[in-house]
Amino acid sequence: MPRLTINGQSCEVPEGTTLLAAASRLGITIPTLCDDPRLEPSGACRLCVVEIASAARPVTACNTVAADGMTVTTHSPDLERDRRTLLKLLAEHYPAGPLEAFPQKPFHRLLAQYGVQASGPPHAPRGDDSHPYLHADMSQCITCFRCVRICEEVQGQFVWKAWERGDATTIVPDSGTNLLESSCVACGACVDTCPTGALEDQGILKKGVPERWTRTTCPYCGVGCEMELGTIGPEVVTARPVLDAPVNKGHLCVKGRYAHEFVHAEDRITSPMIRDNGDWRPATWDEALSFAAARLQRIRKAHGPDAIGVLGSARATNEENYVAQKFARAVLGTNNVDCCARVCHTPSAAALKWMLGTGASTNSFDDIELSKTLLLVGTNATENHPVVGARIKEHVLKTGANLIVIDPRETELARYARIHLAPRPGTNIPLLHAMAHVLLAEGLADTGFLKARVTELEEFRNFIAEWTPERSAGICGVDASKIREAARHYATDRPSMSFHGLGLTEHVQGTEGVMALINLALLTGNLGRPGAGINPLRGQNNVQGAAHMGCDPGILTGAVSLKDNRERFENVWGAKIPETRGLNLLDMMDAADAGRFKALWVIGYDVLLSNANLTQTRKSFAAMDLVVIQDLFLNETAREFGTVFLPVVSSYEKDGTFMNAERRIQKVRKAIEPVGDSKTDLEVLYLAAKALGAEEILPQRSSEEVWNEIRRVWPAGAGISYGRIEDHGIQWPCPTEDDAGTAILHEGVFASGTTAALRRIDYRPTEETTTDDFPFLLSTGRTLYQFNAGTMTLRTPNALLRPRDLLEIAPADAERLRIREGETVSVVSRHGRIKLPARITPSVKPGELFATFHTPEAEVNLVTSPHRDRFVKACEYKVTAVRLETAAGKTR
What we know:
By secondary structure, the protein is α/β, with parallel strands linked by helices. Helix content is about 30%, strand content about 20%.
């Protein structure tokens, strides 16, 4: 480690540390305008020049690496004079008005520090307010190029362009017009880095500079970005990324940064309600909970506790989900408890658990930058997990790493891929089998890894021999030579890291599809090492945590089997856990339809809008006697079938923890007081237990007290205390408080033992097949600007960026069927009918369609099928046979 002296202070710094960073470690601030820790140093502004005793002239500190024996001076009279001169040159054309309005901007602070006056003409804004979130006023631009560079280096979007040279240089969006028409994805990175206010958040301009900032975790996808929430009094104004956050490394997406106005939406429910004679009426908390408790007791007496179920929430904290499953088991007396993981990533958890011993991601997001090959299966990461998607894109652009995308659509990342394999929907397994065939047929498998850590190789070799690329190509519609090329890169350009999403799991073969992917990792030794692994990208902020805390009928907290761990939990709880086998979400729906299931308590989950086969879901809810909804808004389930509505707070109004897709436990902190009379999910469950006369089983506790109980029953998380995650999260397993956590699973041995077996998976095609009556295959999924059922995002300006669900159709099909852009088209399946506006795009292949599902009025799940994964009963959202009709009804 180099040792150097800066302004008379001696310090030792790691190899590669810049002089700017070294000075910062000593508390010495060197002025700079072009530097940002998220960017590669450029030395363009030259404000950071310093003197080195042995150097003939000053050097820029931001891109000069510290060397052993250096003696550095940072603020000599000559350096300060030069800095003042540079600032005067920048201030000659800079308007004075913005300095007075926003004195804390970095450039404005430097002008004040050096006594430099802005001497430009009166402020004549060249404003662009076309975008709902970003404001641009290039009359304040000092051409530091930070916006250009951060858009390229962090987001990989290339929105900002520099035109002309020298004094004539201007920065403009790539549209050549305004931001709204540009390729901007509203990540806000350019606003973060702008030192002048040329780029600013609309929220700050309209509401003011935040009075305080609260560090917390994003309430959207499972990436788990850390952010600081800016507030004024009771109102959320804006958000900004935490610069040193290990997950997002100073970056956010449009949802995390801007989509927070749902907290203050006009239709937010903030007082309990009871439905009488079809109409909602306001109620007190005591009245609403007493009503619900009386109904539950009546149902339990008449039909038994297994006529009742509880659904935890991917939007609730770990602590709240833990208490939810404890409420179901110890208070209500049923193992009928589940969460939305059932319809998205339970296949991932099951496959990973069965084959490797732990049903969670094997590696960390930091392994992206260590990988040489990235295999993406059924995940549109830049839209659904934007910060991870951006990291993947930047890694590929910077290093030339191989990117292999398996997806029926041409997603954004597919356009950056070395190889894009676009299988017919529902044929992931034949494609993955063909890759496995190539690995063994061409001798590309890792023989050392196979010998030491894998079993049933010869049985698998015999099984996979028939799955040649040529055979699979006929099923998948993918060129056999491309399958071979993908397999070769994955096996030889290691380490190879795979990510997968709902395009792999939301099939009748979802669990088996993940198993087939794990086979590839086992064959090539891409497990238990940096830059590798099998990594499901979780959809919602705490869907990993909700299931892991025990919101699953067959498991308890820590994803351990109920059967084998009952005694430990009963000892801690001081209560018995029921013996009967619990129902999962889909089982509950079936049992309700059969008349055996009467009451459902739903926390933060719009089941009606989210479940596949909406007609059947309606029928099941209609058969229930009691539906209790805990949510912020009267969602579609509550609107049609709710009996009692209990208003709860958002994550901005409570404390707790979330668990992200890489197994990281992170803090959630209260930034504002609860709106109206709403309560945390934790408080509601305590009050419900009290109303049921079970206060001694579920006594009221703080989130930290609940977490400490979780640590008692979950040995793998016992070392993760609140104090240890105050600054950064920790990845489990972390069994003791002197353990740093586990970034990579299965190093040396698997969680299930020394070896893992390859699985021989028979391919069972879906029943959803095309015919003359239903010639198209429809897949459904998410878009960047909306989130799941739209409960939060549709109540923000994101609705302006993506106001409605669309049906994507290939240009050739649109031309053949004479469908125009924006024309309303009827989509008809064997299960239902919907109407959507057409979007003509080459991203889908002829014969295939894609639709989003966020808008309640679209009711896209009216057309999706009843077919389910045979192992975990996850719904099949990705393959539905349909036909198209015009609004007039003519069959197309």
